[in-house]
Design a protein that fits this description.
The complex is a heterodimer. Chain A is of the alpha/beta class. Helices cover about 35% and strands about 25% of the residues of chain A. In chain A, the strands form 4 sheets. A 6-stranded mixed sheet of chain A has the order 7-8-9-3-10-11, with helices on both faces. In chain A, strands 17-18-19-14-20-21 form a 6-stranded mixed sheet, with helices on both faces. In chain A, strands 1, 2, 4, 5 and 6 form a 5-stranded antiparallel sheet that branches. In chain A, helix 15 packs parallel to helix 17. The longest helix of chain A is centred in the last third of the chain and has 18 residues. Chain A is globular. The C terminus of chain A is likely disordered. Chain B is about 75% helix and about 0% strand. The longest helix of chain B has about 35 residues. The mean pLDDT of chain B is about 85. The chains are: A alpha/beta, B mainly alpha. The interface between A and B is medium-sized, with 33 and 21 residues. Chain B: It is a multi-pass membrane protein.
Chain lengths: ~575, ~300
């Protein structure tokens, strides 16, 4: 732009004063962003951190004029490279987008056009903003893909997004954003959908792009993710920036209570044994007894075998023993792919075993075998010393119920047309609760998971992510389980909501002596909840032992890489924990 | 390789469909009350003698058990022999062959009008202000819901009777084709455009559209280069509806505009219980379905790189 000629310091890449964004009209009018001001200069990285619905993404999109249809945008100042961008037309914006500002969205699978090749997608920016011919464009695309660390760029350029792994897709998306060498890069949750080690690589890549002339705005829900990357952090909540400052200032000396709560809610090794929402309250060791929530239904019909061994068990007595399970599937090209190979572990009553692994490590297959919905080719799963076949032979349905599962996204496991009452009621009925006691039981379960009784009438779609996960937990509790398999139960949640759900799980463990098999890719969560940990890779157990031993003395190179990929919060751990 | 296997599978399935259609029509004709021999000889008015009737029964195997009749029918079909039209005293293939050109021209013209209209309207109206969408959608509903013969009448009244721009009927030249083709096209457009716009609106909400815009692509190119291919896939699935609209519509339109063609032939054959011709037309329709579905299926593989499995 013309102002680059000025001899003094160049103008900021973007400058925003008092931005307000509204969606809808009349009674549907919602104010999503309120009075936000921000500046991104050359060579610096600003992180916009906030939870879902905080308005951070809308703010980022407004910077390039892509607020969305139905939005009303007001600002006192909006400058782009020093040029007034208030009231720019779509035509003016389209000249700037891609050329002066590159945009990286999360989840590259849906952010790349699935019907076009990766090369076409990356080259589109060059086609729109450059005068390169087809052949030179292609050469440049290959160059760009290579520069963001995509191996075999020639081959990849001809492939479609679904043929690339998540990490490569994200790199391709970054290549498309930097193709025209823009001064400003906006990255909206660039690593959210990625495995930890891949996310760390992508963050390093983004950090390398922050050059002397290039500024980066990164939007994230995760303070830890941006800590390494950002120079300054702005914390957003309900459409407002509540606190802004250097990374050090925000992480070590947060002023605003919201920021303090946000930091305290991050689970880690040091938070183990405490509640995330209130670190002054330690967690009692898992209860030794198993109080039934309601009297067990009397077996009035048929001949039933003796009740399962649910006598009060001492904490730590193995409730579940998995011995050498193995499972292979027919792989592509006629071979077999071994998803789980010789996995053994025991789960003690009232304890939590964490299972760590990236996508494809076989952790979900292990969960399905333990749950008994999938058969192992070899090995055994014993609950109270009996395999699933023996339980079945003994016609013992209560064993079936004593292992329950909760998922990452409970929405997919709920019938969207049913109310919460019906969802939980079905599980209550399946648990054998007499008909007249069911309604009370549903309310009791809702209360247990901290949901108000009027939520019984809601439908899953009307609930927030945290509330849905509470319903899923209530549904699992309906069967009065002894073991709950938690498959990434908090991965889709904001950090403060995650903290509340983790606290709820802890509390339930305290009260009912539940045992958890806790699957997660988030090592912080694992260190917070687990007593023991199992590291899985390609179906093989790499590490198994008490969680601190494994993290302090990793025997395997892969574990070390995983640990190094944990986003570091410098000097945070000691400072924020109340003594 | 996968594509070849896909084609082969589809061809096999298509053959099965044709066989099923042939068998069902044969069964229907077999079960229809009435003396086929009498029909062949020109109906009850012809007053044939008992000997001639017996002669015809023997010639046409009508005195044989069902399975023999069915076998000889299939055997003839395989040799491309659809029999003789009772009414026209012509081989059925010839009777259909004489008419098929006119109907093919009508259908092609209708599709050539309907598709550009559909795509233009849907692309321009998707995700626009709600009053624009209400008006466009209202017009589409009217065309989708109004019976074809009423649309045809309305066009006739306006453009032929009042404005005298087009002839009121006949097969003479491309000018006579305009109104009949437009009648068929509007009926197709009404439904297809609504489906396409709904699909487009879903696609335009996708993150990759935002990515395309963030690269500096303008609105119309985004719609055409990115959104349209995605939205076209479900619309292609509706090709069955289009074929049905063309085949069914041609019966009405050809009658209304007194054109020659398969539609008119169908109607005349039904009036006169000219069973071999009706069977021939049913088989022709089934064949058109099979071929169109095969072509659409291959188009899927061209448009969507994820479609590879048979």
């Amino acid at each position: 732009m013309s102002s680059t000629l000025s001899p003094v310091a160049p103008p900021p890449l973007v400058e925003l004063r008092n931005l307000t964004v509204e969606f809808g009209r009349g009674i549907n009018r919602r104010e999503v962003v309120r009075g936000v001001s921000l500046t991104v200069r050359q060579g610096e990285c600003l992180a916009l951190v906030g939870e879902s619905g905080s308005g951070k993404s809308v703010t980022a999109r407004t910077l390039v004029g892509l607020t969305g249809s139905g939005a009303t945008v007001h600002a006192d100042t909006q400058r782009f490279n020093g040029v007034n961008a208030l009231n720019w037309t779509e035509r003016q914006w389209s000249r700037v987008r891609g050329r002066d500002a590159g945009f990286i969205l999360q989840d590259a699978l849906s952010s790349l056009d699935s019907l076009r090749t990766v090369g076409n997608e990356v080259g589109e920016v060059l086609r729109l903003h450059g005068d390169l011919d087809r052949a030179r464009r292609h050469a440049r695309v290959v160059e760009l893909l290579a520069s963001v660390g995509v191996p075999e760029p020639e081959v990849r350029a001809r492939q479609y997004p679904h043929q690339l792994s998540g990490g490569l897709r994200q790199r391709a998306l970054i290549a498309s954003a930097i193709a025209a060498d823009p001064g400003l890069l906006i990255a909206d949750e660039p690593t959210t959908a990625l495995d930890a080690t891949i996310a760390a690589q992508v963050l390093r890549l983004l950090g390398g792009l922050k050059g002397t002339r290039t500024g980066v705005l990164v939007v994230s829900h995760d303070l830890a993710v941006v800590a390494d990357l950002a120079d300054r952090v702005a914390v957003m909540r309900d459409g407002e920036i509540v606190e802004e400052g250097s990374v050090q200032a925000i992480l070590q000396d947060p002023r605003h209570p919201y920021t303090q709560g946000l930091l305290a809610a991050i689970p880690s090794r040091s938070s183990r044994g405490y509640r995330l929402t209130d670190r002054s309250r330690p967690v009692a060791p898992g209860g030794p007894s198993l109080p039934r929530l309601t009297p067990a239904p009397s077996p009035s019909e048929g001949i039933r075998s003796p009740a399962p061994v649910s006598l009060p068990a001492a904490q730590g007595t193995p409730i579940l023993a998995v011995q050498g399970i193995k499972r292979s599937y027919p792989g592509p090209g006629g071979g077999t792919r071994t998803a789980v190979d010789d996995v053994s572990f025991t789960l003690g009553t009232g304890t939590t075993l964490g299972i760590v692994g990236e996508s494809g490590s076989g952790k979900t297959t292990v969960a399905r075998i333990v749950l008994g919905v999938e058969q192992a080719d070899n090995g055994s799963v014993r609950l109270h010393g009996r395999t699933w076949e023996e339980h079945r032979a003994a016609r013992d349905a209560s064993a079936r119920r004593s292992v329950q599962m909760i998922y990452q996204d409970p929405l997919h496991s709920f019938d969207p047309r049913r109310t919460v009452r019906q969802v939980i009621g079905q599980a209550v009925a399946a648990a054998g609760t007499p008909r007249r006691a069911r309604a009370d039981r549903v309310l009791e379960l809702l209360d247990l998971v901290g949901l108000a009784s009027d939520k019984a009438r809601s439908r899953p779609l009307d609930l927030s992510g945290g509330q849905r996960q509470r319903v899923a937990i209530a549904r699992a509790l309906a069967a009065e389980p002894e073991v709950i398999i938690c498959d990434e139960p908090v991965s889709a949640l904001d950090v403060t909501v995650q903290a509340r759900i983790l606290d709820l799980l802890t509390e339930l463990q305290e009260r009912f002596g539940l045992s958890y098999l806790f699957i997660s890719h988030d090592l912080g969560v694992i260190q917070h909840v687990s007593k023991d940990v199992l590291v899985l890779r390609d179906g093989v157990v790499l590490e198994h032992g008490p969680v601190d031993d494994v993290f302090d003395n990793p025997r395997h190179d892969y574990t070390r890489r995983l640990i190094n990929a944990i986003p570091a919060l410098p000097a945070l751990r000691k400072d924020t924990i109340p003594s | 390789m996968a594509v070849l296997r896909r084609i082969l599978t589809r061809l096999l399935v298509g053959f099965g469909v044709l066989w099923g259609a042939a068998s069902l029509t044969f069964l229907a004709v077999y079960l229809i009350p009435g003396d086929t021999a009498l029909l062949i000889l020109g109906g009850p008015d012809a007053r044939p003698t008992a000997e001639t009737l017996a002669q015809v029964r023997a010639d046409y195997l009508l005195d044989q058990p069902f399975i023999v009749q069915y076998g000889s029918y299939l055997g003839n079909l395989l040799q491309g022999d659809l029999g003789q039209s009772y009414r026209l005293r012509l081989p059925v293939t010839e009777a259909i062959g004489q008419q098929i050109g006119a109907t093919a021209a009508l259908s092609a013209a209708a599709v050539a009008l309907a598709l550009p209209l559909t795509f233009a309207v849907a692309i321009l109206s998707a995700q626009r202000a709600s009053w624009i969408r209400s008006i466009v959608s209202g017009i589409e509903v009217v065309f989708a819901a109004t019976p074809t013969f009423i649309i045809g009448f309305a066009l006739l009244i306006v453009f032929s009777f009042t404005l005298h721009w087009f002839p009121i009927g006949g097969n003479q030249g491309p000018v006579a084709l305009v109104l009949p083709a437009l009648t068929l096209a509007l009926a197709i457009f009404g439904t297809l455009s609504q489906v396409l716009r709904n699909e487009l609106e879903d696609v335009l909400e996708q993150p990759f559209i935002l990515t395309a815009r963030s690269r500096g692509m303008r609105d119309l190119p985004v719609r055409i280069r990115h959104a349209l291919r995605h939205a076209a896939i479900p619309v292609m699935t509706m090709s069955g509806f289009v074929v049905a609209a063309l085949l069914g519509g041609s019966v009405i339109v050809e009658t209304l505009f007194s054109r020659q063609g398969i539609g008119a032939l169908t109607l005349a054959s039904v009036y006169n219980k000219d069973l071999p011709v009706i069977i021939g037309i049913v088989l022709l329709s089934a064949a058109v379905y099979v071929v169109v579905n095969l072509v659409i299926d291959l188009l899927y593989t061209l448009i969507d790189p994820k479609v590879v499995t048979a």
